[in-house]
Structures are given as C-alpha cells and as structure tokens.
Design goal:
four-stranded mixed sheet, 8 strands, 2 domains, Transcription Regulator spoIIAA, alpha/beta
Length: 523
C-alpha cells in the first residue's frame, strides 16, 4: 500500500515514525530559538516561550485534527503581548488573560466559528506563504552575517529598536563576522547537497535530516575556530541562549501562575478578547496555508482546531506560557522535512521539554548562523520564483492580490497584510462579477441584452449606459432567463427603459427570469 493510501485509510500515527521522527527533530531545532526570541521580543520571561512551544507540541497537537500544523508562540502577537503586560502591570495578570482567551477560543470552536477560514481567497493565502518565505530570508540575513542584535522571533517590519527589516540588513553589512558567514555558507552547502535527487536516494541521506547535520557541523566548526582561529570564533551572543535548568524540580520552579485576584479587572477581558480574536485568525490562516502545502491534500477541521488552540492557551496560561497559535514557519519546516502525521509535532514538543532539562549546555553551543541557513532555505521554498511565474500566468485577477498581499505583509504585519490582500481580492471578485453580469450582443439594429447570474445595484450604471447607447428604431431583447437574482434597482432601470422606448421607437421584448424574482421583471 502506498504512503498516501495508508495515510488516508489508517489513523495510526505511530506507523509513520520513520518520517515523523526526523521531521519532529528538525521542527524542534527551528522552534527552539524562535520560542526564546519571541519571548524576548514580547518582554516576557524567556522560559515562557519554551513553555508555549512545549504546550503547542504536546497538548495542541494531541487535540488538533491537523496532521501537519505545528503550534507555538506566535511572532504576530509580540506587540500585543508587550503592550498587554505593560498595561496590566504584571506578567501574572497577563497570564490570566491568556487563560480566558483560551476559554473564548474553545467556545468559538463549539459555536463553529471556524467557518471563517473558508473565506480567504487562494491568491491571498499563497501571497501570505510567499511573504512569510521572504520575511524569513530577509530577517535571517543579519544572523547569517553574524549580526545578532535582534531576537530570532522579531519578524515585524518596524522593530522596537527603531530599525526596520531593510535597515537591519544594512547595519549587518557594517558588522560582519567572518566566522558566522563561513558557518552559514557551509550550512547552506550541506542543505543543497542533501536536496539533490541522486543524494536523497542513498540510505544515510534519507534517514539523517540535513538540519541535524547542519547544527552538529555548526557546533563543530565553531569549536575548531575557538581552538585554531580565535578571531573567527563566535561568542555566546551569537549562539542559542537557553536557560539552564538542572532537573525537573528546577523546571517546576520556573513555572509562573496567573494572578486570579485580577478576575474582576475589566482590562483583563479586553486583552483576552483581543488575544482570542487575533490568535484565532492567525491559526485559521496558518491552517489553510498548511493544508495547501500538504502533499496529501488533507483538509483540517477548523472548529476542532479552534478547540485545540483554546485548550492549549488555557494550559499555557495556567503554567506561565505565552499565548500560542498554529504557526506557518514551524508547519512549513515540518512539511519540508517529510512529516506524515501529527506525531512529528508531538515529538517536537517532547524534545523541547527534554532539551531544557537534559542538554541545555549542548544546545547553547548552536550558532545562530547555522539556524539562519535552515530558515533561509525554508523561506526560499515558500517563495520560489516558479510560484510567482505561476500566479502571473493566471492573470491579473490572481496575480495582483498575490503580490499586494506580499508587499503589505512585508511592510507591516501578517494581519494588516492579509486584510489589504482580502480587500484587493474582493475588488477583483466584484469587478469580475460586474463585467460578467451584463452581456450585450449586436446585429445591425438588433440588440440582445443578456442578464447573467446575479444582477445588483453595482451593475445599475453599466445597464443604464447600455440602454442610452441603443439608437432609435432598434429591436431589443432583454433576456433574464439565466439570472438567479435581479435587484430591484435593476428592475427599475429596465422598467424606465421600457416606458421610454415608445418615444424612441424602440421595440422591446422581455424574456423573464425563471427564478422567484419574476415579479421584478415587469413590462
């Protein structure tokens, strides 16, 4: 039985461990610095990002119906979190808002609010994926050059330090680290080598994931630099920085709990509602995008995902974690690494938990430049030139919403960019319906005015102009047989034309709609 058939016929998530194990490892390597970076950018304790990542892997993935989506702390929420902690006065008060936000998401799931995910145009979703890919590349260029002044999780265009995505790259060019550049180039070469079709067929290369080799090689190269080329060696500020925890008891001591005494504070509920709405939108967007990337084209249940996210946020808030969503960066890394089922997301959560207790010292040796290479390649696969060519070939109605969504996300943030893309997409939908609603055919002085599909007030001006252009003495057939709905405004325009047609010596024949709107189509 083929892998695809076995996936569709059996829910056994353990049967694909040979794919999900390596994928979970790769997602763990990608997620670890992002969890820490997002916590730092959010003004929250570093450990809160790791907790959210663990909950996203172990809790959300267990309840989710998606086989490939990976959840964790979301970069898109950093500004909201930063402002909310400041407004509420303490991180403990903010955690209570996270718990309530989770409860709201759980309720939204039961109310079947996930249906909103069906209303995002394909061109906008593809634009979002390409934009995320470009953001990954642009944001990792400074880390590739050894300029690590900003945390990994900072993906906003305008940064808290006054810089932006492009000015940060120029700053990196003035602060080059030859050691970081060398490690990044070696890492990129390894990933490209692993992706070659002839290489991937060999057993070793198919079993061992390239990102693991990149991480180990990055550690090894930097250790060689320390010993033989100290001028190229990377210091701790250029490496992963994970809090050191000796055992599970110390792990428990790192947990922070909500301040339930703030339950009556109305500001808590304003933050909670804001978090619930934005986290739900980001999740539904990421879920839709993940389904599009899924090579097996499975469709994830949206309402179940809202419930899973709600449970996850309640658990995360209760033990000191940041709010979380389904995250397209982790999900893309998961798919790119060959994951088949949700077991890969669960494995990534388990590895995050084990790593902070068992091997934090080893993880703190990983160069950020090596991780930058991994994320740059993920970004390139999301924003391949072939995708731009494909969208261009589909016409301006698809291409413009696609590129405008990309530009808007690059220059603002995910939700603002998606909103702009949606508005542009809606414009082209209206324009398409506007052009197709009325069809005029002329044969000498004979005119056929055909009303197609729904004809609304938006077509009123075009129909009136069409009637004004018809010359005296013409014969006109107005055919509404194919129209499902004829707006009252349109009916009035037709009635006015019929009433004045005798004065212009125009003969009019009406073919009525077969729909229930016949009474609007009068002579």
């Amino acid at each position: 039985m083929s892998d695809k058939n076995s996936l569709n016929s059996s829910p056994n998530i353990f049967g694909h461990f040979k794919y999900d194990g390596p994928a979970g490892l790769v997602v763990f390597l990608v997620a670890l610095p992002l969890c820490l970076g997002i916590a730092l950018a959010s003004g929250a304790p570093l450990f809160s990002g790791v907790i959210a990542g663990i909950v996203g892997g172990l809790v959300v993935a267990s309840f989710s119906g998606s086989q490939l989506a990976v959840s964790g702390p979301a970069a898109g929420l950093t500004i909201i979190v930063l402002n909310a902690i400041d407004d509420l006065g303490s991180f403990e008060s903010f955690l209570l808002a996270v718990v309530i936000a989770g409860a709201i998401q759980l309720l939204l799931g039961f109310l079947k609010a996930g249906v909103i995910g069906n209303f995002f145009p394909s061109s906008v979703i593809k634009g979002m994926l390409a934009a995320i890919g470009l953001i990954l590349i642009l944001k990792q260029i400074p880390h590739a050059f050894g300029y690590d002044s900003d945390p990994e999780g900072d993906i906003e265009f305008f940064q808290p330090d006054g810089q932006n995505t492009f000015s940060e790259i120029f700053a990196a060019l003035e602060n080059l680290s030859m050691g970081a550049i060398a490690i990044c180039l070696i890492s990129l070469a390894v990933i490209l080598l692993w992706d070659r079709p002839g290489i991937k067929k060999k057993a070793f290369f198919s079993i061992v994931p390239a990102p693991l080799v990149v991480v180990l090689l990055g550690i090894g190269v930097n250790q060689l630099f320390i010993k033989f080329l100290p001028d190229m060696a990377l210091g701790q500020s250029h490496l992963v920085s994970l809090p050191i925890i000796g055992n599970l008891s110390e792990f428990a001591n790192e947990l922070t709990f909500p301040d339930f005494s703030q339950f009556g504070n109305p500001e808590i509920y304003v933050v909670a509602i804001t978090l619930a709405i934005i986290a739900s939108l980001e999740t539904l967007l990421s879920l839709e995008a993940t389904d599009k990337l899924d090579p097996y084209k499975r469709v994830s249940p949206q309402n179940r995902e809202l419930k899973a996210q709600g449970i996850g946020n309640m658990v995360s808030g209760l033990i000191g974690g940041l709010p979380l969503t389904a995250v397209i960066v982790r999900s893309s890394a998961n798919i790119d690494s060959g994951a088949h089922t949700k077991m890969s997301a669960i494995i990534h959560g388990a590895l995050l938990l084990l790593s902070v207790v068992v091997i934090p010292h080893i993880l703190n040796l990983i160069p950020l430049a090596a991780l930058a290479a991994i994320l740059i390649m993920i970004g390139f696969k999301l924003a391949k030139p072939s995708l731009f060519r494909s969208m261009f070939q589909k016409g301006m109605g698809q291409f413009l919403p696609f590129v405008i969504t990309i530009a808007a996300i690059l220059l603002s943030d995910l939700l603002i960019g998606i909103s702009i893309g949606m508005a542009v997409g809606l414009f082209f939908v209206i324009k398409s319906n506007f052009n197709e609603a009325i069809l005029v055919t002329q044969d000498e002085e004979n005119y056929l005015v055909k009303l197609n599909k729904d004809v609304t007030f938006l077509n009123k001006s075009a129909l009136r102009t069409t009637f004004q252009k018809i010359p005296k003495g013409a014969f006109v057939i107005i055919d509404g047989t194919k129209s499902i709905f004829i707006d009252n405004d349109i009916s009035e325009v037709i009635e006015d034309f019929v009433e004045t047609s005798e004065n212009r010596k125009i003969t009019v024949e009406l073919k009525k709609s077969s729909s229930s709107y016949n009474h609007l189509f009068k002579k």
